[in-house]
Amino acid sequence: MLDIAVSYNKYKFLGYEFLTWLWYVIENDREWLNDQDPELVTLDIGNCIVLENREKGGVERISIKGDDAGLEEGVMALDKGAFVVETNLVYKTGDNEWRFTLKGESFNVSNLKPPEVSALETEDEFEGLVLEKMYLYEKVFLLIDKLYSAFIEIRLSEEWKSGVIVKMRKWIDHQTKSGN
Amino acid sequence: MGLLSTSASITRYLIDGVINDSVMETVLNGLKTNRFPDIEEEESEMTAGWTSFRTPYQPYFDDSSFVIGAYFIFALRIDKKSIPPKLVKKLIAVETARHLSESGRDYVSKTEKQAIKEHVQTLLASRIPATPTIYDIVWNYEQKTLYFFSTQKAANEELETLFSRSFNLSPIRLFPYTMASLTAGLNDVRKNELNKLTSSVFVE
């Protein structure tokens, strides 16, 4: 394996591509998402998405925040060559909902809000509470692992260039033209 | 922002390697050897060590209280002194004036300037109390996974250093490349292809 520090910088584009592709999948192929995680009810872009455009030498950063914010500006940024570098996601299974922000270059998870757990009433319940919290946190990482492993498989296949990129280009083009 | 908070920030690690002796004993020894000290060095600007998850200000590792289910759960405590730069500047000016007055000279040499600065920093570090921060850690030894409840760079670096020193195991941060290479189930041929990848372009 390559040196850790070198590989962090050299391949952070994989994290940006993954988040950009994930946005495309969320908008266009929910069935595929369900195939990856049968428990998944919905996966949506949450209240924040950050894009970066590194074309033409400089770095242009576009942040879209707010529960009802439209993503039109984000699509326009994609059309100019930007990538998603960070996004908030809302993951639902059954009656449970997780909200978290995933950063593309590090895959750090921040603002992770798992479903609520019952408050501690007696000391005996402490270990159970810890295990329940860990179970809920790990659900998010399991989802990330499944989606990212699937992405890497696709990314290394011929399908990436001949199919996925072509479809993503069409989606970006269509969204830009329809103003949505 | 810890394990039991309503909101958490987490960095995930793969723990490479195995413990050849008794795992429990080795982990317990590592925690005890590098636990947060009872008495901090007054002049030190930063002190770090392992502490208990449940009682972070009374580190106690003499039993199996750090084991819950399949997890080792403990915490990293970092006490740091924040010395205001303006205070340093003010005291350097005062000390310099005093030094000039005592020596009868009208200048201080480069070496003297450095000595005054170091003296002021040491003096302030011994007077200003350190602010403690606790970062929870959940380590599943069998799964080779560790969850560190912070995404701060300095805290992560401190964790990596202290973890290697305590348990003689290498924590590998899971980011896009390491996840693809180590946890996505790629064989050697695919890993080779991964190393050759370059960035895609989504627009024409």
Short synopsis of the structure:
The complex is a heterodimer of chains A (about 180) and B (about 200). Chain A has 6 helices and 5 strands.
Give the secondary structure arrangement, pairings included.
The complex is a heterodimer of chains A (180) and B (204).
Chain A lengths: L3 H7 L1 H17 L1 H7 L5 E12 L6 E6 L6 H8 L3 E11 L2 E8 L5 E5 L12 H30 L2 H21 L2
Antiparallel strand pairs in A: 1-2, 1-3, 3-4, 4-5
Helix pairs in contact in A: 4-6
Chain B lengths: L7 E9 L6 H11 L12 E6 L15 E2 L2 E10 L4 H19 L6 H18 L3 E10 L4 E4 L4 H15 L2 E4 L2 H8 L4 H8 L9
Antiparallel strand pairs in B: 1-6, 1-7, 2-4, 3-4, 4-5, 5-6
Helix pairs in contact in B: 1-4, 2-3
Structural commentary:
The complex is a heterodimer of chains A (180) and B (204). Chain A has 180 residues and is of the alpha+beta class. Chain A has one domain (4-171). Chain A is 50% helix and 23% strand. Chain A contains six helices and five strands; from the N terminus they run αααββαβββαα. Chain A has helices spanning 4-10, 12-28, 30-36, 72-79, 126-155, 158-178, and strands at residues 42-53, 60-65, 83-93, 96-103, 109-113. In chain A, a hairpin with a 6-residue loop joins β1 (42-53) and β2. The radius of gyration of chain A is 18 Å and the shape is globular. In chain A, 31% of the residues are buried. The model of chain A has no long low-confidence stretch (mean pLDDT 92). Chain B is α+β, with helices and mostly antiparallel strands and 204 residues long. Chain B has two domains: 11-80 and 132-195, no CATH class; 85-127. Chain B contains six helices and seven strands; from the N terminus they run βαβββααββαβαα. Chain B has helices at 23-33, 85-103, 110-127, 153-167, 176-183, 188-195, and strands at residues 8-16, 46-51, 67-68, 71-80, 131-140, 145-148, 170-173. In chain B, strands 1, 2, 3, 4, 5, 6 and 7 form a seven-stranded antiparallel beta sheet that branches. Chain B is extended and about 75 Å long. The chains are: A alpha+beta (180), B alpha+beta (204). At the A-B interface, α1, α2, β5, α5 and α6 of A face β1, α5 and α6 of B. β5 of chain A pairs antiparallel with β1 (8-16) of chain B.
